[in-house]
Each structure stands twice: as structure tokens, then as C-alpha cells.
Design brief:
Blueprint (H helix, E strand, L loop, with lengths): L1 H20 L2 H18 L4 E11 L4 E12 L2 E6 L2 E5 L4 E5 L4 E5 L22 E11 L2 E10 L6 E9 L5 E8 L4 E11 L19 E4 L2
Parallel strand pairs: 6-12
Antiparallel strand pairs: 1-2, 1-11, 2-3, 3-4, 4-5, 5-6, 7-8, 8-9, 9-10, 10-11
């Protein structure tokens, strides 16, 4: 009898957990994210104009910078905060335009930085629990909000909020809520898809910049 009661308790706990996992909010969040992935992966390339904001409400800090990014597969070229980043899928060149220096490195795939240019439109696809968090209207457009919670509790952030245009299934804003009080916000101001790209656009050509100091960190 004791074994039966123990087995029944385990079964009830499992059933309860499964029921929570399949709540309407979770299912709706999954449906939204699946559509975002489907639409995003249908494009050969994405070019976006965005505003990046560092916010710390406790310290009364809010700094914003405009930037652009071109993405094709796992390759990207980003331009923001006086730095140009080129990534060809293996090597990262970070060109600091104001100091005339380029750093060459091989990114660590396990790096704690989550709002990386390479995964800005696919950050939701791995390592998160999620839940539908509501709707809002922005500039006359219906926006769906999905909260992401990292499965790895050692991440430096507690939550990521994704804002999704209901009609286009494009991500319009991302907010990463940091445990240290720093929040990182990326707001997409304009997005173009299937723009012509060439592999050379994702490589910094040192021979074309003889005046630049090259620091190889590989």
C-alpha cells in the first residue's frame, strides 16, 4: 500500500507539472515563437535599423544609440556605438572606428552575452521557458508579448521580453532584464528582408585599412 501511495503521489505531481507546462499561456507563447522562427528562417537575409538602449532605473541611467545590422544565416555585420562588427561564421572582427583599431577573435559559443547580433532574431529558440504575457498596441499595430525565462539560472539576466508584430511575425523589440539592474533594450525601427548580400560583406579587409592597428586575439 505504501508503494502504491508513493507511486500515486509521483504520478499526481507529474500530471500537475505537465498540466502547468501546457497551460494556455504557454501554448500561446509557443505558437507565437514557432511562427517567428518559421518566418525568420524563410528569409535569405535581414537588414535592420535599430535603437540600442542601456537602462538602469536605480542609477537613473538611460543611454541610447542607433545602429544597423545585416544578417545572413550565422553571418552578420553590425554598426553601433562607433564600432563595426564583422562575423563570417567563424571569425569576428571588431573595428573601433574612433581609435583606429581592429580586434580579431574567435567568439565563444558559450559566452554569457545573450543579445548577440548573431542571434537577435532567434534568441528564443534554445534554452528558455516561455509564456504569453499579453498584448499591446504600438503605432496602430497589434503587438504580442512573450516572456522568456532562462533554463540556466546562472545567466546574468532573469528574463527576456519579446515584442512580436502580430501581423508580420517580426520581432519589434527585445528587453533583457539584468540581475544587476542593467536592462538592455533593442528596438527595431525598420526591417528589410531578402536584401542582396555577398560573403565579403561579413569580413573586415585589413589590406584596405593599412592605417588601422590590428590586434589578433585568437
Amino acid at each position: 500500500m505504501k508503494k502504491f501511495i508513493k507511486l500515486l503521489s509521483i504520478t499526481l505531481l507529474f500530471t500537475s507539472a505537465t498540466t502547468r507546462a501546457q497551460s494556455p499561456e504557454v501554448l500561446q507563447g509557443k505558437e507565437i515563437l514557432d511562427k517567428v522562427s518559421e518566418v525568420t528562417k524563410s528569409y535569405n537575409s535581414i537588414k535592420a535599423h535599430f535603437t540600442f538602449t542601456l537602462e538602469n532605473k536605480q542609477a537613473d541611467i538611460e543611454d541610447s544609440y542607433d545602429g544597423t545590422i545585416l544578417i545572413s544565416g550565422n553571418k552578420y555585420k553590425a554598426d553601433v556605438m562607433n564600432a563595426e562588427s564583422y562575423f563570417d561564421g567563424e571569425t569576428l572582427w571588431t573595428y573601433l572606428t574612433e581609435v583606429g583599431e581592429v580586434n580579431i577573435s574567435t567568439p565563444d559559443p558559450n559566452d554569457e552575452m545573450s543579445l548577440s547580433p548573431s542571434n537577435i532574431f532567434s534568441i528564443h529558440e534554445d534554452g528558455f521557458r516561455y509564456i504569453f504575457a499579453g498584448n499591446e498596441v504600438k503605432d496602430g499595430k497589434q503587438i504580442q508579448i512573450v516572456d522568456l525565462f532562462p533554463e540556466d539560472r546562472n545567466k546574468p539576466f532573469s528574463r527576456i521580453k519579446l515584442y512580436v508584430n502580430k501581423a508580420s511575425k517580426h520581432i519589434s523589440k527585445i528587453i533583457q532584464i539584468g540581475k544587476d539592474g542593467n536592462n538592455y533594450i533593442i528596438e527595431i525601427n525598420k526591417m528589410e528582408t531578402n536584401v542582396p548580400v555577398d560573403a565579403s560583406q561579413f569580413v573586415f579587409k585589413t589590406e584596405e585599412h593599412p592605417e588601422v592597428d590590428v590586434i589578433d586575439l585568437r
